[in-house]
């Protein structure tokens, strides 16, 4: 991998094994939840607080149920697997050992995955498990969601 991204392999040890590539430079403007939702203009934090965003009809909090409700507002529904389905956009939702959400990744049209890593880079990685693992990584994939792709 490129030397400039070795810092990511310290935080996410699975990256070196699974493989990844940079997608965009570091940014604190948006976070992984916003990125998976297609919103690169603001941070989604689980609460409707000054300077942050959370969908109006979504349950507030850091539980998996709250995160599921946020993505349900975007027409995502829980699905069985990460297997690529050309007609659907998919996301993976991650939780820590306490069951609180930690991360969201989205599937690329070629079946790889992409993640916004905190205030760090956006990357493309081959599997959802590339960013999973014990802290400081994102825990484990709790579930997958999908929605039908918009017609072009």
State the main characteristics.
152 residues, 4 helices, seven-stranded antiparallel beta sheet, alpha+beta
What structural category characterises the helix and strand content?
Answer: alpha+beta
Report strand order across the widest sheet.
1-6-5-4-3-7-2
Q: What is the overall pLDDT average? A: 93
Q: In percent, how much strand structure appears in the residues?
A: 25-35%
Helix content: 10-25%
List the uncertain runs: none
Q: How many helical elements?
A: 4
Q: How many whole angstroms does the radius of gyration measure? A: 15 Å
Q: Indicate the overall shape.
A: globular
The helix/strand order is: HHEHHEEEEEE
